[in-house]
Structure formats: C-alpha cells, structure tokens
C-alpha cells in the first residue's frame, strides 16, 4: 500500500511540476495586469460606459461595451453595483447586457491565463466570447426594446477596497486580494488535471470529447457547469484535455458554458433578473454555447483548425 501511495505522489509531483513550469508566468502576468486595471483603470472604464448615455452607436457601441467588459477585472458581485449606477445614469440596457456577459466570460487575468492554451484556442476564446456578448446585447435591444430587463432597485453603491492613499500600497493590496481569491482554485485545477492525467487514459478523453464524437460539444458544455470553479483553475484541465484529443468545438462550448453558469455569477445575476428573465439567461447560455461549439467543430473539420 505504501508503495502505491509513494508512486501516486511521484506521478502527482511530476505532473504538477510540468504545469507549474508551463503556467507560472501566465498566472503572474494575469494577476499583475488585473490588479493594475482594477486600481488604475476602473474609473476610466466607468467614464467610457457613461459616455454612451443617450447615444445610439449601433453595433460599434456593443463592441465597445463588450471590450470594456473584457477589460473589467471586477467580479460579478462588484460589477452589479457599477452597472446599477450606470443604468440609473441612463446607459442603455443593451450596452449593459453586453458589458455584463462579456465581464462574466472574460477578464484581464483570464485573457492572460488563456495565452497558455495556444494561439488557435486563445483566438477562438476571444472571438466566441465576443459573439456571445454581442448576441446578448442585440437580443436585449430588439426583444426588450420597450420594457426593462434588469431590476436594480436593491442595489446601491458597491464597496471600494482600493482606498489606501499610497498608490503602490493600494496596488500591492489588490494583488494580495487577487492571489487570495484565485490561487487556491488555480492550484486545485492543476491537481485535478494531474489526477486526470494519472488515472484517465487519453483514449477515454478523446473518445468522449474528441473530434470523432458528434456529442462531444454537448458533453463539454455539460461538464462546464460542475467543473468550472474559476477561470484560472480550468486552464490546466483544458490544456490536458486538448493534449489528449479534445476537439476545438468542445473546448469552445466548455469555455462558454462554464463561466456563464459559475455558481457565484448565477447567484448574483438571479438577484437582478428575477425567475423569468433568469430562465431566459440560462437558455441563452446553453443554446449559444452549443451553437458556437458546433460551428467551431464544423469549421475545424472543414479547414483543419
């Protein structure tokens, strides 16, 4: 028995060492970048969104809102008071929907972490997240043109933790909070990925999530719900699955359904949507993740992504 435990520990150390070497600098860069934007750029993001009050910029406005959502390093509980304030200042709800969905799907830290997935999957993540955010904005624009989709009655100003008078100290404190919030999940993701590598044959992963399985996109979208703890924690798992034969379409479905149905995000969104609109959101996430995953799957098979 002790030999079995020792062998397990050796294999676990081996795979963890590989992942730390592969992902360490992406994690450091993402953390530092996210804290920098949070401390020095948060007010600028708010001003850019507020500038859209009463302005109809068509698709360009939605693209700008999505890009600002990607650039926002604030968690959903921190985003809601900001969005509520913008809503009461008159920012259009289609822009806010686009911003919120983009913020749910990506943030500066996760964008930096996702570079480790390689250029093709990284590009697919950015493009499909943008399409999903734009689709949300367009649906709100045309389906809820004359009625409110959100309910911000119970939201006041959010708590601001970046208040220290010294900017350097403020930044370091923000980095510390980011590490505290993400490092346990990032490490848990590496351990889970290592255990998958040790105990789950690559052929099994390829048969379930690979190109040859027409149900791979559906399986990946479903797995995204329970396995998505935080963005950084899923990067090691995705790297291992892709190396084991996961299709690009399945990866896209997982990367869309996971963050959009993360339990913390759902709890926050439920507070401003109500039951009916919350169900609309869940259906939107599932359908869009499947469509974009299948489109990627077909495109990959056609042109060999």
Would you give an account of this structure?
With 305 residues, the chain is mainly α. It has one domain (2-303). The chain is 79% helix and 0% strand. The protein is built from 13 helices and no strands. It has helices spanning 2-40, 42-50, 58-71, 76-88, 93-105, 108-114, 119-143, 167-199, 202-209, 216-227, 231-243, 248-260, 263-303. The protein is globular. The protein starts with a helix and ends with a helix. The model has no long low-confidence stretch (mean pLDDT 82).
Cα Rg: 20 Å
- Count of helical stretches: 13
What is the number of E strands? 0
What string gives the helices and strands in order?
Answer: HHHHHHHHHHHHH
Low-confidence stretches: none
Query: Rough shape?
Result: globular
The helix content is over 70%
- Structural class, judged by helices and strands? mainly alpha
Brief descriptors of the model:
79% helix; 13 helices
TL;DR?
This protein is mainly alpha-helical and 305 residues long. It is built from 13 helices and no strands. The protein has one domain.
Helix and strand topology:
Layout: H1 2-40, H2 42-50, H3 58-71, H4 76-88, H5 93-105, H6 108-114, H7 119-143, H8 167-199, H9 202-209, H10 216-227, H11 231-243, H12 248-260, H13 263-303
Helix pairs in contact: 1-6, 1-8, 3-5, 3-7, 4-5, 5-7, 7-12, 7-13, 8-11, 10-12, 10-13, 12-13
């Amino acid at each position: 028995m002790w030999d079995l435990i020792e062998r397990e520990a050796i294999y676990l150390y081996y795979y963890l060492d590989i992942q730390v070497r592969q992902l360490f600098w992406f994690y450091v860069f993402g953390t530092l970048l996210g804290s920098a934007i949070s401390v020095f750029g948060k007010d600028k993001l708010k001003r850019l969104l507020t500038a859209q009050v009463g302005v109809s910029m068509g698709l360009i406005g939605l693209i700008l809102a999505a890009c600002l959502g990607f650039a926002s390093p604030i968690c959903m509980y921190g985003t809601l008071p900001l969005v509520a304030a913008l809503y009461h200042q008159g920012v259009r709800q289609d822009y806010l929907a686009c911003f919120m969905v983009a913020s749910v799907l990506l943030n500066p830290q996760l964008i930096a972490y996702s570079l480790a997935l390689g250029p093709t999957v990284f590009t697919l993540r950015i493009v499909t997240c943008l399409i999903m955010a734009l689709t949300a904005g367009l649906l709100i624009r045309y389906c809820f043109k004359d009625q409110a989709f959100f309910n911000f009655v119970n939201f006041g100003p959010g708590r601001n933790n970046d208040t220290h008078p010294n900017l350097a100290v403020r930044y370091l404190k923000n980095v510390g909070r980011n590490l505290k919030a993400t490092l346990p999940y990032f490490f848990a993701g590496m351990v889970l990925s290592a255990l998958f590598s040790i105990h789950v044959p690559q052929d099994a992963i390829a048969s379930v999530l690979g190109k040859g399985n027409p149900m791979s996109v559906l399986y990946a979208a479903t797995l995204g719900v329970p396995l998505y703890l935080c963005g950084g924690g899923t990067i090691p798992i995705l790297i291992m699955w892709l190396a084991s034969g996961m299709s690009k379409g399945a990866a896209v479905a997982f990367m869309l359904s996971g963050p959009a149905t993360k339990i913390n995000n759902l709890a926050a969104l439920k507070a401003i949507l109500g039951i009916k609109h919350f169900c609309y959101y869940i259906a939107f996430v599932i359908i869009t993740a499947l469509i974009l995953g299948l489109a990627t799957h077909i495109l990959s098979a056609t042109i060999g992504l």
